[in-house]
Amino acid sequence: MKLNKLIKTAIKYGPIVYPIIKKMMDKKSAPQPATTRRTPKR
Q: What superkingdom does the record give (predicted)?
């Protein structure tokens, strides 16, 4: 799933992106394509 890749990317980026993704998920509380589009595909 894309969520797995997002989590792996967050771990690779460090604890800097982790809280951002967690806050976004908490605020949206829904699997939307906007969350994956906001994260960089590096």
A: Bacteria
Q: Are 25 and 17 in contact (CB under 8 A)?
A: no
Is the whole-model pTM more than 0.90?
no
Q: Residue 5: left (phi > 0), alpha (psi -120 to 50), or beta? A: alpha
Spell out the alpha helix ranges (H) of the chain: 2-13, 18-28, 33-38
Please give the structure tokens belonging to residue 36: 């994956």
pLDDT in tens, 1-42: 677 887 787 677 777 776 777 787 777 655 555 555 566 666
